[in-house]
Amino acid sequence: MATDLERTVEALLFLSPQPVPIAELAEACDVTEAQIDRAIDALSGDLEGRGVVLREVAGGWSLAAHPDAEDAARRLLAKPRTPPLTQAQAETLAIVAYLQPVSRPEIARIRGVSSESAVQTLAERGLIEESGRSRFGAVIYRTTPLFERLFGLSGLDQLPDPARFDPSPEDERELRERLLKAGEQRTE
Amino acid sequence: MATDLERTVEALLFLSPQPVPIAELAEACDVTEAQIDRAIDALSGDLEGRGVVLREVAGGWSLAAHPDAEDAARRLLAKPRTPPLTQAQAETLAIVAYLQPVSRPEIARIRGVSSESAVQTLAERGLIEESGRSRFGAVIYRTTPLFERLFGLSGLDQLPDPARFDPSPEDERELRERLLKAGEQRTE
Amino acid sequence: MRASELDLDLDVFAGPFDLLMTIVLREEVPLAEVELGEIVVAYLALVEERGELDLEAATEFLVLIASLLELKSRLLLPVAEADEPELAPEEAAEELLARMLEYRRYRGAAAHLAERFADGRRYLYRAAPLPPELRRVALEAARPAYEPDRLAAAIGDLLQIPPAPDTSHIRQTVSLDRRLRVLRDLLAGHGRIDFDQSFGSDDRLTQAVTLFALLEMHKRGEATWSQRETFGPIEITAANGAGHGN
């Protein structure tokens, strides 16, 4: 039978969306950190063979669903989420798609505004991913296979020619250079 | 030791932000509803004495933290206790729960007072919501799934028969006599 | 204008209309003694004073006052004058009784719900976002959902270099007074100036007004000017040699 403290710790980890540090658990339960350590040990044993697992991650302890349940969880919860792209997301995705690999500062320079939240949303939805770091240490991005699927493209060479939508087709310079120049002029 | 199905059900309930109906669990796990019923039973037994409990609310199953951990949880999550219902809110909610869909003038007729602020507060707390307009154009209200969850109801059919709140026959007789006497005094 | 905002001052009762309704239903004030006419007058006065009429609020008031009127008339009307049988006091009392019983039912249900709530809110539910892998579409299940042209169009938008700001709506004004001041300052400083050197880089309008200012100064005897040949340099000299204002 679990002790009261073990049950409380389980309830707290169950409720918390973030990993909880030992110190915070101790404070909430009004006990010492050593007592929390023992409760965590006992809980870890009791959760053996259950659908929920105890994990120690940076920042503390958390409960997570057992990985074996992922397929069922996907069927239950992962409603295909492909909401329409906002203008910021479409622009950011277009920059990554046509110029990849491309760094976050470059995206910001071309768009003329910080594009942090668009980049984050696109990464979360699995449309873009990090592909390393630039010479200057900035994270660089590329599109994912999921991106190609969701846009019905059999490869990146299938991206439509932007010349159709290009306001200055007589200009023969490289796309990247022209985008950066336009971006700079927008922010002046 | 828990079966694979029981572990999967536990993981699904852990992940799902809403109560999950049996039918949806069966579909996600690719088993029959009877199998889910048995897994729920087994899970309920295995959670005995733990920090997490199984609850049937709002048309489905949900995991919740054990009430014993409430104080520690509110300290950890800095989540104040929801204020109790005022008399006006409780009366209004009772009328909406039993008579839904019901309009504000109808609520006012039964309570004998304007119930505007109670209706508004209940709507703000997510316990009732608009569900269209009556023939006469008044907004009509119904309860929400959150109401069922917070009140521990697996469905609206779990509300007790309202007749059980009626005054006893003796009380009723006494009330009638007093009223008749008042009427007679007037007409004398 | 809500019925709840109506403050009453009656013989048997002083306070908000809401409270009156409550205590009538709770049998604390005999309905027969309440002046309903005064309530209506007070309500109408308040509506007039506010100058607004919220239909839903007015409906609510009408429902409440009408039910009170009906109940009270049945309580008061003597049996003898009643053509219609339902005006009998017994039935009026029955009607009022039914209303009170109905209210009591929901008051009881309210107490039950309040208890349930006190119990239910001790259970806390998890409210955490789904893990990232569940928040995106699985690759195998992914179907085309977006138009590739949207990306090309976005690139087209980004290639757009915004046109220089349109300044055509700004009307230039050159003030004669200001040109006079400029000329006087220059002459005061130098005693003698060359028009082209001083104003050659100004726009045509400024040059024209400056010339006009020069004519004015010449007329007033403040300055003289000379041009030795057509289109040649114009030399301006302060009339007293030292310039104006010194």
Please explain how this structure is put together.
The complex is a heterotrimer, with two copies of chain A (188 residues) and one copy of chain C (246 residues). Chain A is built from nine helices and five strands, in the order H-H-H-E-E-H-H-E-H-H-E-E-H-H. Chain A has helices at residues 4-15, 22-29, 33-46, 70-77, 87-99, 104-111, 116-124, 145-150, 175-187, and strands spanning 52-57, 60-65, 102-103, 128-133, 139-143. The radius of gyration of chain A is 24 Å and the shape is elongated. In chain C, strand 1 (7-9) and strand 2 (14-16) form a beta hairpin. Chain C is built from nine helices and six strands. Chain C has helices at 17-25, 36-50, 55-76, 89-120, 132-135, 148-159, 176-190, 195-199, 204-220, and strands at 7-9, 14-16, 124-125, 192-194, 223-227, 234-238. Classes of the chains: A alpha+beta (188), C mainly alpha (246). Chains in contact: A-B, A-C, B-C. At the A-B interface, helix 1, helix 2 and helix 4 of A face helix 1, helix 2 and helix 4 of B.
Record the SSE blueprint.
The complex is a heterotrimer, with 2 copies of chain A (188 residues) and 1 copy of chain C (246 residues).
Chain A: H1 4-15, H2 22-29, H3 33-46, E1 52-57, E2 60-65, H4 70-77, H5 87-99, E3 102-103, H6 104-111, H7 116-124, E4 128-133, E5 139-143, H8 145-150, H9 175-187
Antiparallel strand pairs in A: 1-2, 3-5, 4-5
Chain C: E1 7-9, E2 14-16, H1 17-25, H2 36-50, H3 55-76, H4 89-120, E3 124-125, H5 132-135, H6 148-159, H7 176-190, E4 192-194, H8 195-199, H9 204-220, E5 223-227, E6 234-238
Antiparallel strand pairs in C: 1-2, 4-6, 5-6
Helix pairs in contact in C: 3-4, 7-9
